[in-house]
Specification:
With about 300 residues, the protein is an alpha/beta fold. It is built from nine helices and eight strands. It is globular.
Length: about 300
Amino acid sequence: MTTSSSKWNVTDIPDQTGRTAVVTGANSGLGIATVEALAGAGAHVVLAVRDVKRGEAAAAGVRGSVEVRRLDLADLASVREFAAGWQGGLDLQINNAGVMNIPEAATKDGFEMQFGTNHLGHFALTNLLLPHITDRVVTVSSGAHKMPGSPRIHFDNLNLTGEYAPMTAYSQSKLANLLFTLELQRRLAESGSSVRALAAHPGYAATNLQSHDGSALRRALMRVGNRFMAQDSRAGALPTLYATVQDLPGASYVGPDGLGEMRGAPTLVGRSRAASDPATARRLWTVSEELTGVAFPQPASVPA
């Protein structure tokens, strides 16, 4: 197992020929950088995107085997339709799509948009596709899961009704990503599956994500930060790619190795105490099943 990766980059990705990957939110930023790297290594990559035209425009610039399929994570009917249309095996599922610090909004199913998109949409998609998945699920979280103020899962008010704050909602959703990974790995291991669940975060990467912030002041600050402090999307995608192709234990969390995990080469990193609580992870899983109507299935790698 490789854990030291001070100079690891896309040229270290093993040959992916014959493997299939799904990348959500793949038409820009970290998503398209992930697609480019995997397709460049020989994988067939499906860009799962809400806007098919934008996805096709992005895919046109990728060298390798790619295709575009529609997926709106803020609409469980779209998630079900995407999963129902899948045939054959799926080696890699990369839960990359997300929204960040947006003004208060709701998904088509009535969930707070950040929790509904970043967590519940990916929760449903993963469980619906799991009978096809043969290698691993990688979910993109964020250092925001341990921001000051002790981010937590607001089980008594998941939609944050009457107390909504963009950063609170985002932190909750990114904490949920890590708890989801923790409990998914536990269930996979318990079922005897060889499929692994891992998580990653990009550090501070300049993407379109910051431009939708609900605060004009934060948007202005992020424009400056994106220009002078952030790493680019290809560097930001390295932790995701490392988690996707390296031989790491299930439930591993990968991020940059630089100061404050803001930038640098990918390596194993720590997470908050709240993100490591198995009881909270199980509770969140149960609630997520109730909200989405989707439960843990028999994984593909479990012998009949």
